[in-house]
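We modelled the chain as a single entity of 462 amino acids. Its sequence is:
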Amino acid sequence: MHRLFQSTNIASLVFFRIVFGILAFADILAAFVYKHLYVGAFSPEGFQFRYYGFEWVQPFPEPFMSLFFLVGLAAAVGITIGWRYRLCCTIYALAFSYTFLMEKGFYLNHGYLFCVLSFMMIFLPVHHHLSVDVVQGRVPASKQVPVWPLFLLRFSMGVVYFFGGIAKINADWLNGMPLKLWLKAKADMPVLGWLWGQEWVAYFMSYGGLLLDLFVTFFLLSKRTRLWALFFVLFFHSTNLIIFKIGIFPFLSVALTLLFFEPDFPLRTIAWLEKRLPFIGKIKDWWASKEPTTVLDTLPSPSRNRQILIGTAIGVYCLIHCLLPLRHHYFKGDVAWTEEGHRYAWRMMLRSKRGYGSFRLEDRKTGATFIENPGDYLRPRQKRKLYTHPDMILQFAHFLRDKYKAEKQMDVIVKADIKVRLNGGPYQRYISDSTDLAHVEWSFLEEADWIVPEKKKGRGEK
């Protein structure tokens, strides 16, 4: 524990605060413009798939929903420039998480990671240098901070890489799936399309991604291999950025990866740029004139009790994030098929999954039947996600049950006639046709016995 409270240069943490703030602004701006204004995903009149336990998260009516996003954008700016840093971090963490929880259909691993980092950043002393808080005297300027904030950020990235690699050790991935399908679909891309159409590229990316995720953290920990690790990280994320639409995740990953370098690397980078770009030196001198003349060598060491509290919190955080990605082993079925234990486990872009179908409702009193098409109620993305996620299928079944009860005073049986294909395999029935979903409740700990087991035959075939 003593090692966690030794001092280290604050420069790399300040670098990450600025990058995090910029990415925070970009991400919530995209949610505001695309998801809210263009798609209408957060309209109170629309249907949202909410996370179990967070059904109370509801969109606000206009103009309050737009104001909500504007407050989040302002908080992101505050984080970037270090103005009332902890307040802005708290506001942003709550705003981003609220947006994240409003629609399960938009779940991405980087969104979950950003939620975690947003709350973590509240407690990190990353605003004691190059910040408005320092200039205005709200916090003392300091050249150094404890090691534990840097350790936490490195650990968070290391967990994502390592468990992302563990998840790739499966038969489909080793056989080049689903990259064969995804790259084939990109064969008409200008300039590089011919390359994505080559089958060997799918194998190269599959095995390259597997090896990178499994071992890159260990290479980053060694000075001798760190630059090589960064090169492959940049190549990997640049390729993903070209081929796939994955938002800010590549930029966030590279920023976190750079934290494995010596903590003063931003200072050395600025010094190198200063020799080649004179205006960098002028900006540096201008900012130096704004900062206080008194700068602490390091922040005061916390009391013994506070050290124990911080150390315990770090230990609990590390334990949770080492165990959570393993919870799918608690369930019997293939997680790629059942989705039980898929979220929050860094199972990133591991399967190509498609489905179709409808819901059949039957009035318990009269026996009258009705067919409901999810497309009549859901946006395109919601519909695609619905067919391949059992918890969302169940939520929609409950929505139909409640709708018929409220509008038609009917007590209905709800069954899902849905078929799904995984990684190019044949379409198979996904939900038991003998299960009345109206009377099924979701459980985090019990297996959903109403999910039909997959018959693993013919994956990759047309």
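As a brief sanity check on the tokenised model: The two ends are 56 Å apart (CA to CA). The longest helix spans residues 11-38.
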